[in-house]
Amino acid sequence: MRKICIVTFGCQMNKLDSELAAEALQDAGHVVVQDEASADTVIFNTCSVRDHAEQRALSRLVQLRTRRESDSGFRLGLMGCFAEREGEALIERLPYLDFAVGTRQFMRLPEMLEQAERGRSGRFGEADDPGPGLDAAHARSRHHGIHGFVSVMRGCGNRCAYCIVPSVRGGEVSRPVADVVREVASLVDAGAREVTLLGQNIDAYGKGSVWNLARLLARIEEKIPESAGLRRIRFVTSHPRDIDRELVEAVATLPRACGHFHMPAQSGSDKMLKAMRRGYSRAEYDDKLAMIHEAAPTATIASDFIVGFPGETEEDFRATLDLVLAARFQNSYIFKYSPRPGTLAEREMTDDVPKAEKRRRNLALLEAQNAVNRERSESLVGTRRTILVEGESSRDPSRWTGRTAENLICVFPAPEDGAIKAGDLLDLAICSATPLTLFGRPV
Ligand code: SAH
Ligand code: SF4
Ligand code: F3S
Asked: Whose CA is nearest to atom 13 of ligand 1?
């Protein structure tokens, strides 16, 4: 029996995988702890999406080297996307790394730990091989507090020129509707009040079958009554090419589906969108924005952008800036292009935008989005919002936080003992705002 700490990098999918892995380890008799210092085994669940993400995990790993070398009972392991990409090579290169397990094989962690006891093990999984037990794990109930996550799809069927995800997560696979509904129900039973459905391109759910995301949302609404405790249903990430009116109308009409779309544009320039192999033009993206505003007028939209993609000129960048200012996104996540080994962009394009220029574009875009955030936040002062209460603020115990269906963060004074609890819906009158936070009082 070991005391294991899993340290997670990367996206929601990795966070969910960490939970599933923790559960498998607990079932095998291990204890999962939150703090690294008290653990005798540390597993890094890694991300490969940008070089920086890999370097962060590596430097954390290197920090534990002395401990591994001086304490014969201590074990170090890797899981996740970087482990999938480079696991075998890292095992070769780093003698203090005990095991590495790929994105589809983490249910084998207990087995791998045993192997590591008998000598180092370099086994890891193929992205397309689901490995034993992954679906069984998905079907089990987990306790997450009020937030539950369900991956309704695995992998990604796209081939965006810059992106490592398809190669570390494998092809796109949709899970059966009945499994998803069962899993949502079990999370709600265990206390989840908001469930987020996860997929790299979730708008493609059910492609090739009679199912799609709109129908899946409707099925969840129908099968899991509000009286069971489920208050909200969210989903990420929407692809601009695949999002359609049926989905947006479903979100607008289903009472518990949240009016928030994360629909990454990546660029506002047609030339860049084409080079990135995104599968839509700027005009098509603008049409999707207009369609969402029309069919779900109160919904908010967030986006991702990559600056400094190969060949991006000042003019291309201006087109992106223009999109950020015109679309007035609820939020934008902005990344500097990072060449990923084996991707089309890395193989065939030159990373020709200088680092300093990437940084400048990144900052300029952030500034533009900040101005949008400030205006949007200020325009909400004086309105009323309904939030799902999340609990005490991590920064300030005299305040509590929650989110609106549109994913706006709200803060309010800590309630009297027992008056309000996490998972409750609460109406707030918004009295002031900063660019990313609304401050309110219960009404
Ligand atoms: N499946 C999602 C997001 C996947 S990765 C989607 O398609 O939208 C999350 C974000 O990381 C992407 O939206 C993109 O903006 C960014 N990203 C992915 N690869 C990158 C790279 N090589 N360099 C910089 N940013 C990258
Ligand atoms: Fe990557 Fe594109 Fe797939 Fe998103 S849709 S995970 S950016 S390949
Ligand atoms: Fe997620 Fe990073 Fe893997 S963004 S899918 S953990 S490469």
From this structure: 304
Ligand 3 contacts CB of residue 11 (under 6 A): yes
Decide whether any atom of ligand 2 lies within 6 Å of the 251 Cβ.
Answer: no
Interatomic CA distance for residues 438 and 385, integer angstroms: 10
Strand partners, 428: 385, 442
The residues that bridge with 430 in the sheet, in sequence order, are 440
Cα of 10 from ligand 3 centre, angstroms: 5
Residue 98 DSSP code = -
What pTM was computed for the model? 0.94
Q: Which residues contact 344 (CB under 8 A, 6 or more apart)?
A: 159, 161, 162, 277
- The structural domains of the chain, ordered by start, are 3-117 (3.40.50.12160), 143-379 (3.80.30.20), 384-442 (2.40.50.140)
Mean pLDDT by 10 residues, the chain (443 residues): 96 94 94 95 97 96 95 94 94 92 89 79 54 57 80 95 96 95 94 96 96 98 96 98 98 98 98 98 98 98 98 98 98 98 98 98 98 97 97 92 97 91 96 97 95
